[in-house]
Automatic annotation (TrEMBL):
UniProt keyword terms in alphabetical order: DNA-binding, Transcription, Transcription regulation
Stored SMART domains: HTH_LUXR (SM00421)
Protein name from the UniProt record: HTH luxR-type domain-containing protein
Pfam families, per the entry: GerE (PF00196)
Superkingdom of source: Bacteria
BP-aspect Gene Ontology terms: regulation of DNA-templated transcription
Residue intervals of the HTH luxR-type domain: 146-211
GO molecular function: DNA binding
């Protein structure tokens, strides 16, 4: 994200991962308020026109959203007017990183009215950047970074592990994933055992260190 910000003006951006069920998680925010991240998780992901679940397999590395085209998708106008505009955002470009037929990560790039729309030159640069990055070791396998514990987890355990790594409590994890609290606790216990973490705090520290290694 630092490379992109050095090439073109942005009001904010975030990098995230996408699990096997096309749910987004593990957000890394740059110049964005955590308040809006929580609002996104509570509601706006369901109507986000650029959400990975709305992308047809293998069709796109880049999509753009603005006031002019927001209404093309169901919920798009609400997303633009109630989520983007309150953040002083008028233009959003979404980058999708693919491994085979699966999106494994993405990035949201935001601009204000004052910064103007993304240009064709910007789009060409971003498309080439995504193509290059997707073929590199940075996101070749977003579950493999040398921490073997994550590789032994089930898809659900990895999903919960990323949320625990963001210091999200069990109750909130259950709400987001629509699972009962005892089930969340059982998953967390297995996650700690598989990663060798003696406590939730130690696990969070390991996850945060891992995330910094991946995006640096």
């Amino acid at each position: 994200m630092g490379v992109v910000a050095s090439v073109m003006p942005l009001s904010g951006c975030c990098f995230y991962r996408v699990n096997d069920g096309r749910h987004v998680m593990d957000h890394q925010l740059f110049n964005l308020s955590p308040y809006w991240e929580q609002r996104y998780y509570h509601h706006f992901w369901r109507i986000d026109p650029l959400h990975p679940r709305r992308v047809t397999a293998g069709t796109s590395r880049l999509r753009m959203l603005s006031r002019e085209n927001a209404g093309r998708d169901e919920g798009g106008t609400e997303y633009f007017e109630q989520f983007l505009q309150p953040q002083n955002t008028s233009f959003q470009t979404e980058l999708y990183f693919w491994t085979g037929s699966r999106i494994v990560a993405g990035a949201s790039l935001l601009r204000s009215d004052a910064q103007g729309a993304f240009t064709e030159q910007n789009a060409s640069f971003l498309d080439k950047l995504v193509e290059f990055t997707a073929s590199s070791c940075i996101i070749d396998d977003c579950n493999s970074t040398g921490w073997n514990g994550l590789q032994t987890m089930t898809p659900r355990e990895r999903e919960i592990a990323y949320l625990v790594g963001e210091a999200i409590c069990n109750k909130e994890i259950g709400r987001r994933l629509n699972i009962e609290l005892p089930t969340v606790k059982a998953h967390v216990s297995r996650i700690l055992a598989k990663t060798g973490a003696s406590s939730r705090a130690e696990f969070i520290k390991k996850m945060q260190s891992r995330q910094l290694d991946v995006v640096s």
